[in-house]
Amino acid sequence: MSSSSSSSAASSLPASEPESESTSNNESIRESIHFVTGKLAEASLREIVASLASKQSFDYTIEVLPITVAALMTPKWLLKHMRIPSGASRVILPGYLQTGIDAIRSAISTPIECGPKDVRDLPLLFGKKRFKGEDYGQYSIEIIAEINYAPRLTVAALVEQAKVLIGDGANRIDLGCEPGVRWYGVADAVKALCDEGIPTSIDTFDVWEAATATKAGSSLVLSVNKTNREASIDWGCEVVVVPDDLGDFMPGMMETAEYLQKHSVAFRLDPILEPIGCGFANSLGRYLATREAFPEASIMMGIGNITELTDCDSAGINTLLLGICEEQQIRSVLTTQVIAWARSSVRECDLARRLVNYAVRHKIPPKHFEDRLVMLRDPSTTTFSAEAIAALAQNIKDNNYRILIDDKQIHLISAGVHLRGADPFEIMEQLMMLPESRNVDPSHAFYLGFELNKALTALTLGKRYEQDESLRWGMHTRPERHHRLKRGKRSEA
Predict the structure, then answer these.
(1) Could you give the CA distance from residue 468 to residue 445 in angstroms, rounded to a whole number?
(2) How far is CA 360 from the centre of its chain?
(3) Distance between CA atoms of residues 273 and 217, nearest Å
(4) Closest of 321, 316, 318 to residue 337, by C-alpha
(5) Which of 58, 168, 227, 372 could form a disulfide with 31, with the two C-beta atoms 3.0–4.6 Å apart?
(6) Whole-angstrom Cα distance, residue 471 to residue 300?
(7) What pTM was estimated for this model as a whole?
(8) How far apart are CA 304 and CA 294, in angstroms?
(9) Does residue 15 carry a pLDDT above 50?
(10) Which positions ≥6 away from 251 have C-beta within 8 Å?
């Protein structure tokens, strides 16, 4: 639980009298939870716990220790000051004590656990977040990451880019050739990748390029139809079968599949996913029809036609398409990450395939399992109430500035100061007009400007804001140094 307000003396205040209930007649004893916090989190904690207790039917006590910022507590200091009521069935501590939890547990017999660092996340401990089993993380979908216009790159550049894609979660690198321009260096490129232990495929209809690449080590050719299927007999590898005619896709694809089966050539089918506006819905229907016609066949979906050609961040699209693939047992996807909004597609697909695999196997919606795919918004949009912020402002006795947001505006508060608004420039202008601003040196002003800008971003997008903590951008989140807490250690502890 993070800290946020009140300079009242340390207290342990029961919210309700513990009930003594008989365990006979299938009745159970009502749980009594003891919450521990610092002064600044008191008002928010009381508000949240009261709501939880009424919904979850437990008794509770709240102990406010004589320290302003809960993040500054140490296990030794906590054990010296904490007083646990005799009726408490468990104790929930601020999240920043997680690193010292073993030392605390060894000194106390009552069950101890740490809550979240941010008090607003406390409801997650009471069932809001789904249980994630030990089998989470399994996947069944192969990610084939295409390097577009591979012939234009040096072998060294291809290897470097391929290693990055493999590190992001790709299982195979597809070398995209240029139609009408033969790539005479294809063998060198394939050999270089194979020497690095990287599985490759070659994306071409050119028979010579396919034969040369497979001889050098490529184990998959994209793609084959009636124009080049006869040559594929000599390649000695798996191929991807595509329709001859999308308007009447099934006959030609079935004919090629039967031909390959007759000649013992392994294949996977790809009825081709088309962009939105160009037949997208009908192309999804082709995948359903293909699965029905070939219940046991391997199928591949090229998803780049949607992620690269739609003005939309790619994570949601990738997750939806991977969900379709998982349900239809489409065991490979071909993706690219060229355009700006799709530049992390491989990482997104890697997370998404694990999420949808878990959802399909357990027959549950893919919700509250993978925060890293929630980037623009936040998994939880809980904000501090106006009452909690007002209580914080009234009880602060030091000159350190705190920044919070409600659902409408930014608040800058300190001893005797409570400024609010939606424009960081106006808030800073108001601050500099106050006598209290004499303690704002250039370094401090820069820090406040940086934090106010983060607060504005959070307010604009409906994101969670916590001072001195990174905004959450899912898998793109960057950790930040705790500048305010470092100053606080000199003045607040």
Answers:
(1) 14
(2) 19
(3) 28
(4) 318
(5) 58
(6) 37
(7) 0.77
(8) 24
(9) no
(10) none
Q: Find the angle CA(68)-CA(72)-CA(78) to the nearest 5 degrees.
A: 90
- For residue 110, the one-letter residue type is T
Burial class (CB in 10 A: 0-12, 13-18, 19+), 161: middle
Tokens, residue 98: 């997680």
Locate tokens 């191929």: which residue?
A: 239
Q: Where are the alpha helices (DSSP H) in 263-298?
A: 280-293
- State the pLDDT at residue 483: 63
Residue range 227-242: average pLDDT? 96
CA-based max dimension of the chain: 88
Place of tokens 């990482």: 347
Closest CA to 92 of 140, 35, 145: 35
| The pair of three-digit structure tokens given for residue 202, joined into one six-digit string | 């070659």
pLDDT digits 0-9 by tens, 342-364 = 999 999 999 999 999 999 999 88
What values do phi and psi take at 232, rounded to 5?
Answer: -65, -20
Q: Look at the block and give the residue holding tokens 């060894």.
A: 106
Cβ atoms 229, 259 nearer than 8 A: yes
Count of helix runs (H) and strand runs (E) in the chain: 15, 16
Instruction: Give the count of beta carbons closer than 10 Å to the beta carbon of residue 351.
Output: 24
Q: Residue 69 — very low, low, confident or very high, per pLDDT cuts 50/70/90? A: confident
Residue 300 in tokens: 């591949």
Q: What is the pLDDT of residue 88?
A: 94
CA end-to-end span of the chain: 17
Residue indicated by tokens 């009636």: 226
Domains of the chain as residue ranges with CATH: 11-126 (3.40.50), 142-367 (3.20.20.20), 386-491 (no CATH)
Can you give the pLDDT at residue 186?
97
pLDDT by residue (tens digit) across 380-429?
Answer: 777 788 888 888 888 888 888 999 999 899 999 998 899 999 999 999 99
